[in-house]
Design brief:
Layout: H1 12-20, H2 42-54, E1 59-62, H3 67-82, E2 88-90, H4 103-106, E3 113-117, H5 124-133, E4 136-140, E5 154-156, H6 172-187, H7 197-206, H8 213-228, H9 232-241, H10 248-265, H11 269-275, H12 280-314, E6 322-326, H13 334-345, E7 349-355, E8 358-364, H14 371-377, E9 384-388, E10 391-397, H15 401-412, E11 426-429, H16 437-445, E12 457-471, E13 477-484, E14 490-496, E15 508-520, E16 523-533
Parallel strand pairs: 1-2, 1-3, 3-4, 4-5, 6-7, 11-12, 14-16
Antiparallel strand pairs: 7-8, 8-10, 9-10, 12-13, 12-15, 13-14, 15-16
Helix pairs in contact: 2-6, 3-6, 3-7, 3-11, 7-8, 7-10, 9-12, 10-11, 10-12, 11-12, 12-13
Amino acid sequence: MRNFNNLPTLSKSTLFELLSQRFDTQEKKLSQIPNPELLHDAPKAAKKIASAIREKKKITLVGDYDVDGISATAIMIDFFRQIPYPIDAIIPNRFSDGYGVSPNILKRVDANLIITVDNGISAVEAAEICKQRGIELIITDHHTPPEILPHAYAIVNPKLSECNYPFEEICGAQVAWLLLGLLKKELNLPIDMKGFLDILTIAIIADIMPLKDINRTLVKEGLKAISTSQRPSSIIIRDFLNKKSISSEDIAFQIAPRINSAGRLEDASIALEFLTATTTNQAYRQFEKLNSLNEQRREMEAEITKEAIDVVKNQGELPNVIVVAGEDWHEGVVGIIASRLVEYFERPAIVLSINNRVAKGSARSLGYIDIFKLIQDNRFYLTKFGGHKMAAGLTLEEHSIKLFGDAINLSASRFDSDDFIPLEDVIGILPSSQIDFELLEILESFEPYGEANSRPLFLIKNAKIIKIDTFGKDRSHSKIIVEDLQDNKKEIEFILFKNILEMPDDERLTCSYRAIKNEFNLKISVQLIISKIY
């Protein structure tokens, strides 16, 4: 258990000061977003797309099946509709096509120009095929570039060493949106680029981009856009959330998993049709499908997570990096399972699904462990890999799993044990007398919360448990009433989701929690949600 003796006791004013220190510069306005021309190859790419449109050439988009890739594709489709100019859009199927623009996908493409969104930086083989077939290829991506780049007409990626864009931590949909800003200028179109912010903000949040600098500005404006946009998908999102103000956490926990579930379990086209629907009726029908897929995903995820945890426990001593594989595990949920294992064991985790002696999987990390670098250092065992610091995807032969697991653990042994500590830090002890609507106002003033600006976590120590109740459809959540012995024995209520707390022998509770605004039946209250019990 961690040592909490050095934690400060906070008041509302010290909390305000503490949160203010997270932002070293003044907040940017939309007008201060750096010029897209600074993106390497972007002006060249915009000119090429403009001339393809003028020459009435066939253009095909190739996206990706996660929220970022689907959002990027949706923004592109909407933009081309407004020109108007016909384009084909393909999002690969995770199971039959694999990832991104690939030789497999190219069999279905008849085009003069291919534009990738949120993929393509590793597509060396596909680029060669395009060259042979006389198809011009423009790659827009944000993933870490490999040593050998594909031969393409243009590669727009802020992480390229020759790129001078001042803020590189942007997602695939942002790269696509910035490029479209240049295309708008090139074709002298009256399209309002702010009109895409509702979709763009979903991508930034779902792809866990750091919510600082331009990302903070875009998400703030984008959340407002979701609340007012007449786009059918935004209307459905508003109806579903049924809240006056929509937060980044609403998108992260309620909307993103639903959009993601299509590509994970079936086909991303369901989510794409939701985001690009032209009527609320059509958007509603697609959202219902996403809801039902999300339910299936949750059931499947719970089942496989339990199985994976048992496998890890039966392996004996906990390794530095968990590598676990299952024969019939659904390929679409291995990323989520990896995240669950990271939470449970506080170790980076790689979860693999084996099919026909080939293992495909996802990696998730924590603390200061760069999982992409660890995988890259052991690429000898892999047939394919890609990703970034905290998350990656990989493919290998079944017989290489054990060797790869041993090798990656050897590489990880060079890290210090402190590097494995999750960065979700408790910022202080908040006396319960400080928990009120004014606290909510202070917390709201620092939104949106997310990566690099996490919602503050507070600690309560040795509170006396008065009562534990369960609630929810299947009574799987806990409501815990405690007495704060360090603050005049004030009674407060905590919520613990997806967990039934048994009364501990000493009837005491030490936990980290976050304070959020709860809107229910037009009543607003402060809700305290437990993050972790110590």
